[in-house]
Amino acid sequence: MEFDKESQVRVLRVAADRSAGKTVDEVDERIAMVMDLHPEFNEIWKQGELATYPQEIGGQIVSPFVHTVLHVIVDQQINAGQPDFVEENFNRLLGQGMDRHHCLHVIMGIYSELYFTTFRRGKQFDTLDYESRLSALSYEDAEKSAE
Question: Where are the domains of the chain?
Answer without folding.
Answer: 1-62, 81-147
